[in-house]
Design brief:
Layout (H helix, E strand, L loop, with lengths): L25 E7 L6 H5 L3 H5 L3 E6 L6 H5 L5 E4 L4 H11 L4 E4 L4 E2 L4 H9 L4 E9 L5 H15 L8 E4 H6 L10 H12 L3 E10 L1 H6 L1 H16 L4 H11 L1
Parallel strand pairs: 1-2, 1-4, 2-3, 6-8
Antiparallel strand pairs: 4-7, 5-8, 6-7
Length: 248
């Protein structure tokens, strides 16, 4: 069993290694699947970060639309992966050049100053996440956002919507995302939590509430809680993925 990461002495930090001026401090990895309608809008705000030296990697999981062509000029690397978000993010991490990895969903926007916030957070912790604000039509989304943030604060478990950021060495230590079709973010958080507590930033990412808008807020809330409960009880991610698809 891996020993927990000891707490840092008060007033001290462990800065991220950046031995080469040409090596990015952060690599932002974005899994993508059939996002042609929105991928340019998602990547446009990241161009300022690219110009400042942040690496942007988009990993496509077999899109049947024009996603790849639209995303290619807006990324430092466009990779093609087998389907599955965990596989896509692991492939992106394999090709990333930075000491810190940021896993950003295609429908999630980073806050202003994100690079500095993440870098500072990883100077004292080996992983972390943001709070989330869900944006959409349902009047229940503010409540859902608060519930997600509170649950994460109480459990030290993060979801992919909250934009996980991790030191590369730590990501490698836990073996990356588990190769499973659902709950890969929950499982990774559990493994990371066994090493050290996350740095839970109260600054919010903005994520699309399209799932709740499309399928109904309370139906989606009940579905996700039921799936998480069953996962906690030991039901396989593969079985839960089938139930998730059928419920939609």
């Amino acid at each position: 069993m891996t020993k927990p990461m000891p707490p840092l002495p008060e007033g001290r930090s462990l800065p991220l290694a950046n031995p080469d001026a040409d090596t990015p401090t952060l690599s932002i990895i974005i899994p993508m699947l059939n996002e042609a309608a929105d991928i340019q809008t998602a990547l446009a705000p990241l161009q300022v970060l690219r110009e400042a030296g942040t690496e942007i990697i988009v990993v496509d999981g077999g899109s049947s639309d024009n996603s790849v062509a639209l995303a290619t000029p807006l990324a430092d690397a466009l990779l093609i992966s087998d389907p599955g978000r965990a596989r896509q993010m692991n492939l992106g991490a394999e090709h990333a050049r930075a000491a810190a990895l940021v896993f950003l969903h295609a429908d999630t926007q980073l806050p202003a100053g994100a690079v500095e916030l993440i870098t500072q957070a990883l100077n004292t912790h080996c992983w972390g996440r943001f709070d989330i604000h869900l944006e959409g039509q349902s009047r229940w989304l503010p409540l859902v956002s608060r519930m997600m943030n509170l649950r994460s604060q109480l459990t030290d478990i993060a979801t992919g919507d909250q934009c996980l950021f991790i030191r590369r060495t730590t990501f490698n230590t836990v073996g990356g995302f588990p190769d499973q079709p659902l709950m890969e973010d929950i499982e990774l958080s559990k493994r990371l939590k066994a090493l050290a507590s996350p740095n839970c930033l109260r600054t919010k990412v903005i994520s699309s509430g399209r799932r709740w808008d499309k399928f109904g807020a309370w139906k989606t809330i009940c579905l996700m809680w039921r799936l998480r409960y069953r996962y906690w009880r030991g039901v396989s991610a593969s079985q839960l993925a089938k139930e998730y698809r059928n419920a939609r």
